[in-house]
Amino acid sequence: MSPDLKSVLPIDFEQIIKSDGQSKDCSERNAAKRLIPSLASQYPKRQLLIVEDALAANGPHIQLLNEHGMDCVIGAKVKGNAKLFEAFAIADTPNSEIK
Asked: Residue 56 burial (CB < 10 Å; 0-12/13-18/19+)?
């Protein structure tokens, strides 16, 4: 991406499709579980910054990003992520411990 260019091209994508024997499409989370390792193997020398919405604000997903050495920016709202915001509030308090 560049502020001087109007076009942005994806480097990869993962379809959200029906898997064998399933009656509904797989979820964004399952697609991300496939996409992250794929990106890491295709671009092993690149430092990737993953930008996602609040759906990605969960421990297992963030752990997967960390395991593949990817940085991330995840937008999250207090509603639906109260524990996350509570942990940050505690961490921001002097002499505090996150539980």
From this structure: buried
Q: Which residues of 3-30 are buried (b: 16+ CB within 10 A; e: fewer)?
A: eeeeeeeeeeebeeeeeeeeeeebebee
Place of tokens 């990003």: 65
The first and second tokens of residue 18, run together, are: 């029906």
Instruction: Find out whether 14 and 38 touch, Cβ atoms under 8 Å.
Output: yes
d(CA 32, CA 60): 11
Q: Is the model's pTM score more than 0.85?
A: no
Average pLDDT over residues 81-91: 81
Please state the domain extents for the chain. 28-91
* Maximum alpha-carbon separation in the chain: 52
Token readout for 19 is: 């898997």
